[in-house]
Amino acid sequence: MNDGLEQFEFASLITAHDDGNYAEAVVPPIFQTSLFTFSNFDDMISAYRGEKVRPIYTRGLNPTVRAFEEMLAKLEGAEDALGFASGMAAISSAILSFVEPGDRIVAVKHVYPDAFRLFGTILKRMKVEVTYVDGRDEEAVAKALPGAKVFYMESPTSWVMEAHNVGSLAELARKHGVVSMIDNSWASPFFQRPITLGVDLVIHSASKYLGGHSDVVAGVVAGSKEMIARLKAEAYPYLGGKLSPFDAWLLIRGLRTLPIRMKAHEAAALTIARRLQELDVVGQVCHPGLANCLPVGLNGTSGLFSFIFREGVDIRAFTDHLKLFKLGVSWGGHESLIVPGEVVLQQKAQPNSAHAFGIHARSVRLHVGLEGTEALWSDLQEAIAVAS
Question: What predicted TM-score, i.e. pTM, was given to this entire model?
Fold first, then answer.
């Protein structure tokens, strides 16, 4: 990593809460409780007046959840963070905290499909306009930003994996007084720390690499104390997308193995992407690591990428013959997954980002898991041979 956060420092941040406060337990406990009581009247009134920050009700504050939030904030280089019950709860709460009816959002193309649906349904009914731009075209971004309230990014973007110069885009947003947000789920804070690049708010679907075991659905937003306080004031308590103590505990467990998992995902996916690139039946491989160099601030690549088959390959036969790669959405866990572009093009949920952004019908999205590079490559080879 070339941004000063070496692996030893990363490990130190991950273990920051292992400080012996809980009977010398190696793992922080789960405070599985809905509420916290008070010793006396003065103690209670002090808490309600805000004179003393302490747990009252788990929807507002819980020690296990707070431990995860503080850990994630440190990993991202942020002042504070806020956990949510899902990635979409994190996205919607962040967006709704900074826009009002009549406002405009600028978003990069190829955003996460459900974020696209949020923009095209609820925000549309709120009379919030969304302008989509190519994040690689900084001139186009600069022209779109004046008058906008929020600039929403992903880098790399969903499905096509376009990597952007996040620092330059964040600087453009700041120049025009626009709040910048980025979904950093793909890279994780191990490979990309957008706060250090000037982004205001960083969002994660913590269900992905932060959790890493496909057993938790969660989200998190990191940023300055001021901006996180704005989320806490309205969207967080009133929309109710609260992260549970047990899920927070699972996320703490996941963060501890994040560096080693990300390196393993990166190595396996890069190897497979390069081999796919050499096959005659493959027309294009969309993986940021295949470029001559990564954008400034992106210090590695994860296990998620896509490729496009040429005509003549039976994609149904290809997917049905796979054994290690399973047909399934989401990603970030041990298991390797595949989603054909033809499937998302037929999805009934509207609006459909695959249609809006022109996802190729012969494309395939892979998540390369941790089963072993050669075993996964053999699985792909056999399925391609059958389908060709």
Answer: 0.93
